[in-house]
Amino acid sequence: xxxxxxxxxxxxxxxxxxxxxxxxxxxxxxxxxxxxxxxxxxxxxxxxxxxxxxxxxxxxxxxxxxxxxxxxxxxxxxxxxxxxxxxxxxxxxxxxxxxxxxxxxxxxxxxxxxxxxxxxxxxxxxxxxxxxxxxxxxxxxxxxxxxxxxxxxxxxxxxxxxxxxxxxxxxxxxxxxxxxxxxxxxxxxxxxxxxxxxxxxxxxxxxxxxxxxxxxxxxxxxxxxxxxxxxxxxxxxxxxxxxxxxxxxxxxxxx
Length: 255
Fold this sequence. Notes:
Distance between the termini: 44 Å
Order of helices and strands: EHEEHEEHEHEHEHHE
């Protein structure tokens, strides 16, 4: 493990044959080499990366500690789903900011690492639905997503199909920019539902019950506290809807 730190690193256009190894170069190999040189990197951009998926049990020297990949922010741009899956499998603990741009997440197998901030830019409808279900963020930003619709975004007001918990149960802040097919009405429903959905602790999720917001338990996640709208999303809010958001959120901004 290298001892130096690096503010930022961008890696462009990698394919399996570029590593010069047999078996082919994988995502694990890529990060293992990076962090043999640097102990931590502030901001990594992976652009147009199409490496072979990493084995579930990659080999490294048994005398070495498990890799400690320290990164504050990772930006995936035009990367294949195998790259993202492999990174999720061997990424560090929760705490990184994640951004996905121009990526197709069809076939994503593993859940993404928990993150304080998740940015989704120019993703197709299927990828948006997948990432809402397979990630856990405190802040989510949707940018330039013309395929984001009310139906997709309203997943944030629904329970996960495998549990009684809401999708994105730790979500507190939502930012929307240039997503023309998302209505203020849908956003209002998300805010309203997340204010009221609070679950009592029960041994079995099926025995859980919901109750009104005067209780103190937040086992289903805190209510949404911040909504920031810009671009077309900020221009389509009526005066009445604006007043409702201001009354029901700690922060409501239009830009």
